[in-house]
Amino acid sequence: SDWCARVAAFNFLQTLLQQGPKGAQEVIQSFEKVMKLFLRHLDDPHHKVAQAALSTLADLIPSCRKPFESYMERVLPHVFSRLIDPKEVVRQPCSSTLEIVSKTYSVDSLLPALLRSLDEQRSPKAKLAVIEFAINSFNRYAGNPEISGNSGILKLWL
Fold first, then answer.
1. Contacts of 39 (CB under 8 A, 6+ apart)
2. CA-to-CA distance for 16 and 107, rounded, in angstroms?
3. Which residues does the chain have with pLDDT short of 70?
4. Residue 39: its pLDDT value, please?
5. Could you report the per-residue pLDDT of 134-158, keeping only the tens digit for each?
6. DSSP per residue over 42-89, as a string?
7. Distance of alpha carbon 16 from its chain centroid, rounded?
């Protein structure tokens, strides 16, 4: 219940992830528990907890690319909802996390998460953030014929 303890949990995870492959392996061994922690606290009312969760998530994605992919659809709606947070200290790590997601995953693997994010956002500002992110992701891959060759799922989205 103590916000300091929640921040400390994310700081510990971040320390593990910064240790390289050995630390990442420890996180992967308990990945389901780790993701439960994120899902529970990305929407935390205390801004320091949300900031710690988002910053740690940005470190986790590159280290745990494959296991995170199956959680993306559940996690990204929380990230997009924090993108319109009144506090810059929450919005900044949120933007960084989304930037990492867009560089790490293809549009095809992002699409289910984007659709769910769009459905789950209540705020028009948050819906707009999802749409802008989707457009930027589509544009990033539009110029690459290798990737955009398999665009059946994109046609479905459009």
1. 71, 74, 75, 78
2. 29
3. 1, 141-158
4. 96
5. 888 888 766 665 544 555 655 555 5
6. TT-SSHHHHHHHHHHHHHHHHHTHHHHHTTHHHHHHHHHHHTT-S-HH
7. 19
- C-alpha–C-alpha distance, residues 46 and 7, integer Å: 10
List the structure tokens of 105.
Answer: 């995953």
3-state helix, strand, coil in the chain (%, to 5): 80, 0, 20
**Element at 38 (helix H, strand E):** helix 31-41
What does the block give as tokens for 87? Answer: 């506090």
Question: Is the Cβ–Cβ distance between 18 and 63 less than 8 Å?
Answer: no
Buried b (16+ CB within 10 A) or exposed e, 140-151: ebeeeeeeeeeb
Mean of per-residue pLDDT scores for the chain: 90
Environment class of 45 (CB within 10 Å of its CB; exposed 0-12, middle 13-18, buried 19+) = exposed
Residue labelled with tokens 């028009």: 124
Q: If we measure between CA atoms, which residue out of 75, 63, 66, 69 comes closest to residue 25?
A: 63
| Global pTM value | 0.87
